Structure formats: structure tokens, C-alpha cells
Amino acid sequence: MINSVELRKGLSEKLRAAAAGVPELRAFVGLDGFVDEIFHVVNTRQDAEQWERLPTITAFSERLAAAAGKSTNIELVPQLTKLGGNGPIMANALASFGLKVSYLGALGYPKIRQVFDEFTKVADVHSVADAGHTNALEFDDGKLMLSSTVQLNDVNWKNIEERFGRDAFASRFQGSDLVAFVNWTMVPYMSEIWETLLKDLMPPADGSRRTIFFDLADPQKRTDDDIKRALELITKFNERFSVILGLNEKEAYEVSEAIGFPQRERSPENLAQLALELNKRIPIDTIVVHPVAYALAASGNEVTTVAGAYIPKPKITTGAGDHFNSGFCLGKLLGLTNTESVLTGVSTSGFYVKNARSPSVADLADFLNQWPA
What is the C-alpha to C-alpha distance for residues 55 and 161, in angstroms, rounded to an integer? Predict the structure, then answer.
């Protein structure tokens, strides 16, 4: 696992040198959308203003288990209402870097919801369905996402053609430097949309090989057959695109189990080996995995693991993975190595959880030079 002062300094200089060219890059992202409400859970309350937060998911689970066969009250204190969904968060982060971003998803229909107003100012934003809703309970050791997703049933090819347009979709899909389709798990018709693109809208074989990013997003509730079908479709895009599959640690093990890999003890070394084995079974350009404390990328027979920034008191954690994905993709678009791209990803995520906002390229360069101890 690497992350040296020299590596960070070198990347900072490369990002500053490349910053002027970032606004020439185009990204097309979709297809989900949520209104996120962030909550803390009350452990004890002293008075109307003073209360103590329940710090961990373990403590929360113990509170719930103690209520079995009885009943209990869980008090939630709202912290923030914000745009949500893997796609909008990733797209918003790419726009903060300076990319020209087009977004298509579920942000409200026929009118885009107010929570996305700022997003519409920095990106070309379109919606074909109402937004889902997530109550995110944040703890020091992770978060619980309680989501209503039935609205995303309207994200299907029929509605895309009727409410957005086939030609409009094709121009962005075929003409962007980066295409990103995320949150496969919660968009029930995503695989059917991919099948349509593979059959009818793939760019010409003699065109430039651009980048496409996929994020399954917590596939635990999908069947093994569904997961294997999605992976087969993703692999087919590798004929015309440079394909990246992004996974967090939990998702990496879930995918490996779905395709029949034996389970193993969880460690950075075993996860790195698993990423290599997944890349052999899923023959695409890059598989990237981002646990909380580090991240790694596997391409061919090589894997690189980079330590992340330690932020002891994060201001926000919901969306950290999507920010990692945006940073990694930025690195690949700029022609950086896997190591540098992973470092760009963990820096983007670290800046976001520390400051509760998306960084610019200049912010990233500064963060790399002022790395948290």
C-alpha cells in the first residue's frame, strides 16, 4: 500500500498543469436520482437543545435488537437535505472539476425538483422520472441508507425516447469523453437500457476509444443471475470503450460470491488478489475497489493499492464513494497511471468528507500538498 509525499507532490503538479484542459472534457452521466435527507440518531437527550449522538452502527443495531418483541422510539435529528443518487453526486463532482457535464436521470417529472436547482446551474440536466427518496442515517463507522426506489421504475428506454429523445441520448452517449452509468441495483431497467445501447447505439468501431464507467451500487438484493447478466453486458462495452467497473469493498465480495468465487478472509492483500481474479473473469480494462481507508485498481495482471486520507471527524460520508469515482475517472481522462488515478480518487473523497463540498482541481492539488496527518 503506497502513498508517499513524493507521489502526492508529483500528482499535485500534474493536476495543476492539466487544469486548463479539464473544461474541454465532456461527460454524460445517468440514470438515477434521489432526494437525500441526512440524519443523526439520538442516543440520549439532555434538554431541547442538548443531545448525544449514537456513534456507531453497532450501537444502533444493539438498540434495535433490544426492542425485539417490544417497541421503541428512535429519534432522528436532520442534518442536511441535498441532491442524492450515485449519478447526480458523481456528475456534480465532475462539474466541480470543470468538465462539461450532461445528466439524464430521475430528478422529478414533469418538473425537476427544487433540491437539484444548483445542479442545473453547473450541468446540462434532464429528467425522465420522479426522484427517489433516501433517509441516510450517518454514524462514525458508516451509514444506513433507507430508500424509496419505486419512482425509478420509470427510468426505461421507452420513457427515455419519449421524454428525452433517442437522438439527444445518442449524441451524448457517442460524443462524450466519459460516459457513466451508475446505480444499476436501484434502476430496474438498466440492463435492458444497456442491451438497447449495445444493439443500436454503439459508436463506430473506427472511432476513438473513450471511457465508460459502471457502478453496480450495492447489488446484495439482486439475484446472482441478474448480477452475472449485468457483468456480461458491461464486458460487451469493452469492444468500443475503455471500461471501468467501480466497486466498494462490500460490493467486491458480493460480486465475487455471485460468480462463484470461494469466500476468503477480508484483508487488503486478499482484496487486491480478488480484484485481479475478478478482472480475469470480467475482461475489461480496469476494476477499481474503494474500501473506506484505501483503494485499489486492477488492470491486466497488475494491481495498485493506495492509502486514503484519514478524516477523524467527517462532516459528511454519504456520497464519498461517488466522489472517489469522479476523481478516479478524472485521473484516467487526464492520462494518469492507475496509481495516480487512485490517489486522485481518494483525495477527492477525502476533501469531500472533510469539507462537505466537492473540490475543484485546484482544491485537489492543495489537498495533496496539505495531506491530513
Answer: 46
CB atoms under 10 Å from CB of 53, counted, come to 15
Answer for the pair 41, 75: CB distance below 8 angstroms, yes or no: yes
Whether the pLDDT of residue 124 is over 90: the answer is yes
Q: Which amino acid does the sequence have at 75?
A: E
pTM, entire model: 0.90
Q: What is the DSSP letter of 262?
A: P
Task: Quick: pLDDT tens for 300-332.
Answer: 899 999 999 999 888 888 889 999 999 999 999
Task: Decide if 173 contacts 197 (C-beta within 8 A).
Answer: yes
188 in helix, strand or coil? coil
pLDDT band at 295 (very low <50, low <70, confident <90, very high): very high
Rounded CA separation 108/130 (Å): 4
Q: Which residues contact 95 (CB under 8 A, 6 or more apart)?
A: 101, 119, 122, 123, 358
Please check whether residue 53 is in contact with residue 152, taking contact to mean a CB–CB distance below 8 angstroms: no
The yes-or-no verdict on residue 154 having pLDDT over 90 is: yes
**What is the pLDDT averaged over residues 92-96?**
97
Strand, coil or helix: what is 259? Answer: coil
Residue 186 gets which letter from DSSP?
Answer: T
Q: Which neighbouring-strand residues pair with 147?
A: 134
Q: Sketch the domain layout of the chain as residue ranges.
A: 5-40+81-369
Contact 72, 94 (CB under 8 A): no
Q: What DSSP character marks residue 197? A: I
Looking at the structure, give the CATH architecture of the domain made up of residues 5-40+81-369. 3-Layer(aba) Sandwich (3.40)
Contact between residue 187 and residue 153 where contact means Cβ atoms under 8 Å apart: no
The number of beta carbons lying within 10 Å of the beta carbon of residue 224 is: 14
pLDDT band at 287 (very low <50, low <70, confident <90, very high): very high
